[in-house]
Design goal:
This protein has one domain. Helices cover 30% and strands 25% of the residues. The protein has 4 helices and 7 strands, in the order H-E-E-H-E-E-E-E-H-E-H. It is globular. The model is unreliable at 4-15 (pLDDT under 50). The protein has 142 residues and is of the alpha+beta class.
């Protein structure tokens, strides 16, 4: 019986430290950068540190400004929502980004994330703006 308790405690310690995304409670959670309530699902973003601390954002631009102050190499996860499928987190480093004033985001930068480049290109054809990959987006926020 003692071994079972010990094994359970050890497993609990390891899983408690594993970096993982947390669900955003829209209308309740606050942005770690601007302190506004997170309400717009397609623009939400999240960072998780190597130690498992979670930072939630109401807009991708808030996450990018937050990353200017924090070291991104300390982040285990950098997550955004695909504009067309905002229910699931996507790896921010693998997405494409459209900045278009015709597609307003919560903080006004017009920044949206797209898992598939062809979808971002189609929206750009409709709304105008500029397309970026993760490296190009980081340069825009330096």
């Amino acid at each position: 019986m003692k071994n079972w308790i010990l094994i359970t405690l050890i497993f609990g310690l390891f899983t408690a430290c594993t970096p993982a995304a947390e669900p955003v409670i829209f209308g309740e959670d606050m942005c770690a950068h601007c302190k506004m309530t997170i309400v717009d699902e397609p623009f939400a973003a999240e960072l998780v540190t190597q130690k498992g601390k979670v930072f939630k954002f109401d807009a991708i631009e808030c996450m990018m400004q937050f990353l200017q102050k924090k070291q991104s190499d300390n982040m285990a996860l950098m997550l955004v929502r695909d504009y067309e499928n905002p229910k699931e987190w996507q790896d921010a480093t693998q997405c494409n980004y459209l900045i278009s004033k015709e597609l307003p985001s919560p903080m006004g930068a017009g920044l949206s994330a797209w898992l598939f480049k062809e979808n971002a290109t189609a929206m750009q054809a409709q709304k105008g703006g500029e397309l970026y990959d993760w490296a190009g987006l980081k340069q825009q926020f330096q």
